[in-house]
Design a protein that fits this description.
five-stranded antiparallel sheet; alpha+beta; about 425 residues; 12 helices
Length: about 425
């Protein structure tokens, strides 16, 4: 194993820690103003590989919060220039009128909680995000932020600029800068804190979150001229394909469930769950498919200093391919993700804050969020009628709960009861004969 491969293998952002790394080679690189960017192909057995972005200063690999690397990246983005490399071009672009890029930058501090990428807060005005594992195509985080910024959607951290690579190995997004939201509180942590201290206070905030989510989906479905964003009608065949995919996932998960007491309520009920899924699919239109957030939950929200919601991290589910993350889907899939997040908050507050929430808190949270969402979203994006909306939501919640079940069994067995409870509730949903 080369030194380069060893360095990548030891990084927190390396996404294949369970796999053997056989080699690492530089596909292309560029150097300017003390900054060097390398695109490195990491090889695995059987000939598979990933491509990672590495940053260098004076010949040594560094993180963007170290030395002058972060400063030079922001400087290059501000410059708007293109740099010729051996196999392609590194392009740096800024959004016209983004004021923070015009000021002298002095303080760079890394975001320690970052896992799959590397982010740096700059002077409490900017956040620089460096994408590590690269795939061919536009990263959805850049694509959706650029679209929403251009369309004047206010409840995001506005895009300031980005950098990308175009060449023979691949075309890919390398990173971006956007507005930093000072004084903001993480939505997940806020939910736990207020559930423990003042549960009704957080419930009151959820109506506004529903409004903002409805406005987000309305904005994302508003451009009829862009092939990448124009809404598409979801046919019965498309719904059948969706449910077939979920059906396969249910079958895989239930094939090898371990013997855990917490799993007893759903043990040996895989076929019953699959049958419930089939019953839920017997209705007409599924509404329209649009670009969505793709990984929507409380942890992807901030409450800013004015007590309004800011939506962040439009990259999508990191385990999915970039092509899957860019696929148009029903906006109700985002809604289902947020509803499942309420279930997690209601359960986690006991173990993480030592407080038992009101027994009806989750039901009231769902109602507050969903009612406000349905009043604010463009109705043409949804199936007609509350019953059809509810049934499609149940399908997406079932998909999410089964995904959660697999994750918790593999990573957090103590939390298995949360998706189990969700699956049991979904089994009790009334379906037509």
């Amino acid at each position: 194993m080369t030194d380069l491969a060893a360095y990548i293998r030891d990084r927190r952002w390396f996404g294949a820690k369970s796999r053997e790394v056989t080699d690492a080679r530089v596909l292309d690189s560029v150097a300017a103003e003390g900054l060097e960017i390398q695109l490195v192909e990491v090889g695995y057995p059987a000939g598979t590989h990933d491509v990672y972005q590495l940053l260098f200063e004076r010949g040594e690999p560094v993180e963007p919060g170290e030395g002058r690397i972060g400063r030079e990246l922001v400087h290059q983005i501000r410059s708007g220039q293109s740099l010729q490399a051996g196999e392609g071009i590194f392009e740096f672009r800024s959004v016209p009128g983004f004021a923070a890029l015009g000021r002298e930058l002095t303080e760079f501090r890394p975001v320690e909680s970052e896992q799959s990428n590397s982010s740096v807060i700059v002077d409490d005005e900017l956040i620089l995000k460096v994408f590590r594992r690269l795939e061919a195509g536009v990263n959805p985080d850049l694509e959706l932020l650029r679209f929403l910024t251009e369309h004047g959607f206010p409840n995001i951290a506005a895009l300031g600029g980005w950098y990308a690579y175009a060449g023979r190995p691949l075309e890919t997004t390398l990173g971006l800068v956007q507005e930093f939201v000072p004084g903001a509180r993480d939505g997940w942590e806020l939910a736990l804190d207020e559930l423990a201290e003042a549960p009704d206070r957080f419930l009151a905030r959820l109506a506004r979150l529903g409004e903002v989510t409805g406005a987000l989906h309305t904005a994302l479905g508003s451009d009829m001229t862009s092939p990448d964003f124009c809404p598409e009608e979801k046919t019965a065949e498309a719904l059948g394909l969706l449910t077939a995919t979920i059906d396969e996932e249910i079958e895989r998960v239930f094939l090898d469930l371990p013997e855990l007491d917490a799993l007893e309520p759903i043990a040996r009920r895989g076929e019953e769950i699959r049958e419930q899924l089939r019953l839920l699919t017997h209705f007409g239109t599924a509404g329209r498919a649009i670009r969505t957030h793709g990984d929507f939950h409380l942890g992807q929200t901030l409450l800013d200093a004015s007590d309004d919601w800011v939506l962040i991290d439009f990259e999508g589910e990191p385990a999915r391919t970039l092509a899957e993350r860019r696929r148009k889907r029903s906006p109700l899939r985002d809604v289902a993700g947020m509803l499942r997040s309420f279930a997690y908050a209601a359960s986690a507050v006991e173990s993480l804050r030592g407080v038992e929430p009101p027994s009806d808190w989750e039901a009231r949270a769902r109602e507050q969020f969903l009612d406000a969402y349905l009043e604010s979203v463009d109705q043409t994006l949804l199936p007609p009628g509350r019953e059809a909306i509810g049934r499609l939501l149940t399908i997406f919640e079932l998909e999410k709960a089964v995904y959660e079940l697999r994750y918790e069994v593999d990573n957090r067995p103590d939390w298995v009861g949360i998706p189990v409870a969700g699956i049991v509730r979904l089994l009790e949903v009334e379906t037509p004969a």
